[in-house]
Design a protein that fits this description.
- The structure is a single chain.
- By secondary structure, the chain is mostly helical.
- Helix content is 53%, strand content 0%.
- The radius of gyration is 14 Å and the shape is elongated.
Protein backbone atom coordinates (compact mmCIF):
# COMPACT_ATOMS: atom_id res chain seq x y z
CA UNK A 1 0.00 0.00 0.00
CA UNK A 2 2.80 2.42 0.84
CA UNK A 3 4.52 1.80 -2.49
CA UNK A 4 1.33 2.18 -4.49
CA UNK A 5 0.29 5.36 -2.68
CA UNK A 6 3.73 6.85 -3.15
CA UNK A 7 3.82 5.94 -6.85
CA UNK A 8 0.40 7.46 -7.56
CA UNK A 9 1.35 10.85 -6.08
CA UNK A 10 -2.29 11.78 -5.48
CA UNK A 11 -1.29 14.47 -3.02
CA UNK A 12 -1.08 16.87 -5.97
CA UNK A 13 -4.10 15.69 -7.98
CA UNK A 14 -6.22 18.59 -9.26
CA UNK A 15 -4.22 21.36 -7.59
CA UNK A 16 -4.63 23.65 -10.57
CA UNK A 17 -8.43 23.66 -10.37
CA UNK A 18 -10.32 24.46 -7.17
CA UNK A 19 -13.69 23.88 -8.86
CA UNK A 20 -13.45 20.13 -8.41
CA UNK A 21 -13.62 17.74 -5.51
CA UNK A 22 -10.02 16.53 -5.79
CA UNK A 23 -9.31 18.45 -2.59
CA UNK A 24 -10.80 15.49 -0.74
CA UNK A 25 -8.41 13.08 -2.50
CA UNK A 26 -5.51 15.32 -1.56
CA UNK A 27 -6.49 15.74 2.08
CA UNK A 28 -7.06 12.04 2.62
CA UNK A 29 -3.78 11.29 0.84
CA UNK A 30 -2.06 13.73 3.20
CA UNK A 31 -3.68 11.93 6.13
CA UNK A 32 -2.51 8.57 4.78
CA UNK A 33 1.01 9.95 4.37
CA UNK A 34 1.05 11.08 7.98
CA UNK A 35 -0.17 7.66 9.11
CA UNK A 36 2.50 5.91 7.03
CA UNK A 37 5.27 8.09 8.46
CA UNK A 38 4.02 7.74 12.02
CA UNK A 39 3.71 3.97 11.75
CA UNK A 40 7.13 3.72 10.12
CA UNK A 41 8.69 5.58 13.04
CA UNK A 42 7.78 2.73 15.41
CA UNK A 43 7.85 -0.24 13.00
CA UNK A 44 10.04 0.63 10.00
CA UNK A 45 8.75 -0.56 6.62
CA UNK A 46 9.24 2.43 4.31
CA UNK A 47 12.39 2.80 2.25
CA UNK A 48 14.59 5.84 2.84
CA UNK A 49 13.47 7.13 -0.55
CA UNK A 50 9.77 6.79 0.38
CA UNK A 51 10.31 8.61 3.67
CA UNK A 52 12.12 11.46 1.96
CA UNK A 53 9.47 11.61 -0.78
CA UNK A 54 6.63 11.94 1.74
CA UNK A 55 8.50 14.59 3.73
CA UNK A 56 9.28 16.57 0.57
CA UNK A 57 5.68 16.24 -0.61
CA UNK A 58 4.28 17.38 2.73
CA UNK A 59 6.42 20.51 2.72
CA UNK A 60 5.54 21.28 -0.90
CA UNK A 61 1.83 20.55 -0.37
CA UNK A 62 1.59 22.93 2.57
CA UNK A 63 3.10 25.68 0.44
CA UNK A 64 0.95 25.26 -2.68
CA UNK A 65 -2.49 24.06 -1.51
CA UNK A 66 -5.05 26.84 -1.88
CA UNK A 67 -8.34 24.95 -1.52
CA UNK A 68 -9.09 24.86 2.20
CA UNK A 69 -12.73 23.77 1.95
CA UNK A 70 -13.81 21.43 4.67
CA UNK A 71 -17.40 21.09 3.62
CA UNK A 72 -19.26 21.59 0.34
CA UNK A 73 -22.87 22.23 1.32
CA UNK A 74 -24.35 21.86 -2.17
CA UNK A 75 -22.88 18.39 -2.53
CA UNK A 76 -22.87 17.59 1.18
CA UNK A 77 -19.23 16.56 0.85
CA UNK A 78 -16.43 17.00 3.29
CA UNK A 79 -17.73 16.77 6.81
CA UNK A 80 -19.54 13.50 6.09
CA UNK A 81 -16.58 11.67 7.56
CA UNK A 82 -16.73 13.57 10.83
CA UNK A 83 -18.25 11.90 13.90
CA UNK A 84 -20.57 14.81 14.73
CA UNK A 85 -22.58 14.45 11.50
Amino acid sequence: MATRTTQQAQLFTGLNNSDNDKVFTRTFTALLGAILLETDSSKPFLTDKQIQTWIDWALKYLQIETDWRGYVSIKRLGAWHCPWQ
